[in-house]
Amino acid sequence: MSRAAERLRLLITHLDRPPAAIVSFYSRLFYEENGFLLIKNLVSEEDIDRFRREFERICRQEIKVPGLVVMRDVAIAKSEFVPDQKAVSKLQDFQEDPELFRYCSLPEILKYVECFIGPNIMAMHTMLINKPPDAGKKTSRHPMHQDLHYFPFRPADRIVCAWTAMEKVSRQNGCLVVLPGSHKGTLQEHDYPEWEGGVNKMYHGVRGYDPQHPRVHLEMEKGDTVFFHPLLIHGSGMNQTQGFRKAISCHYASGDCYYIDVKGTTQENIEKEVKEIAARKYAVGDEITLKDTWAVRGRLVQGARISM
Predict the structure, then answer these.
(1) Transmembrane region positions (predicted)?
(2) pLDDT band at 212 (very low <50, low <70, confident <90, very high)
(3) Within-domain flag for 308
(4) Which domain covers residue 67, as residue numbers?
(5) Is 286 within a domain?
(6) For residue 119, what is the domain's CATH number?
(7) Number of domain units in the chain
(8) In angstroms, how far is CA 257 from the centroid of its own chain?
(9) For residue 80, what pLDDT is reported?
(10) Are 239 and 174 in contact (CB under 8 A)?
(11) pTM
(12) Rounded CA separation 41/123 (Å)
C-alpha cells in the first residue's frame, strides 16, 4: 500500500461519521485503489442488539423464516442457544425476515453503497455469520476467495458487500483478512481446499493465489463496517477464543446489472453444487440454473429494478 493510500486509510477509518464530501471523494478513491473501505462506528449499538436478538429467536426456533438457510459447522457439536443441537455457524438468505433485512436498508449503509454502485440498489445476498470457537479441526477458517465466484451477474464494479461487526472482531476470533489491490485482477478458479479436518459446505477457495501478496487483518469494533469489491481476495482465520464471533452482511448489486451464463467458465463447479442443493431441498429438476437461484432472492432497496 502506498504512503498516500495509508494516510488516506487513516483519515477515513478513524472518522466516526465522515461528512458527505469525504464519503463521495476520499472513500471512493481509497476503495478504487485497495478494493475495500473500513468505516468506524457506522451501525448503532441499538440496531446491532436488535439483530442479535432476532438471531437468537431463529436459533431457538421461535420463528420460521421462509427461504432461510441455516448452516451448521461440520465439527461443532455444541449449540450456543439450544441444547443438543450442532452450532449454527451462518444464516443465509434472510430477505424474508423483516427485522434482519432492515440491516440492508439502513441509510448509513446505503449512503456508501450508492457511492460505489449507483442509485439503483438491489440487496442480493444476505448473511449473519456466527463463527464458532474452533474445535481443533480448523473448520472455523474460511479459505481465501473472491465473492464473484458465487455470482452469475455482472459487471463486477457494480457489486459491493457491506460487512458489519456485531461485536469486537480480532485476529484471535478470526477477523477478515484481505489482499489489498487484488480486486484489480480477474476472477480466478475456485474449489474446496485440501485441508486436514475438512471444510464447511460451499466454502470454496482461490486456487493458486500469491501467498506473498501483502495482506491486511481487519480488526473491528462493534458497529464498524467494511465495504469490499467482489473480486477482492479475502478470507478469515480460526476462532481461537471460547466465544462465537458474529457479523451481519449484505451483497448489493446495481439494478441495471445483468445475468450471465456460467457454462464454460470457472463458475461451472459452483453452479453444479447449487443445483444439487436446490434439487434436494425444493425437489426441482435439472433445468434450474444458477441465475434462477439468485433472481428469486434479490430485493430492491433503493431506486429502480431495471434488469435484475
Answers:
(1) none
(2) confident
(3) no
(4) 7-302
(5) yes
(6) 2.60.120.620
(7) 1
(8) 19
(9) 58
(10) yes
(11) 0.87
(12) 22
Other CB atoms within a 10 A radius of the CB of residue 181 amount to 17
Phi, psi of 123 (to 5 degrees): -90, 115
Helices within 70-151 (DSSP H only): 98-101, 107-117
Compute the residue count for the chain. 308
pLDDT for 122-157, tens place per residue? 999 999 999 888 777 666 678 899 999 999 999 999
∠ at Cα 109 (239, 90), nearest 5°?
A: 30
Say yes or no to pLDDT of 3 above 70: no
Residue 307 lies in a domain: no
1 found inside a domain:
no
- Here the cell at position 148 is 464473484
Q: If DSSP codes are grouped into helix, strand and coil, which group holds residue 138?
A: coil
Sheet holding 234-236, edge to edge: 142-145, 234-236, 176-178, 216-218
Q: Which three cell numbers stand for residue 108?
A: 448509513
Rounded-to-integer distance, Cα 140 and Cα 116, Å: 31
265 Cβ contact list (under 8 Å, min separation 6)? none
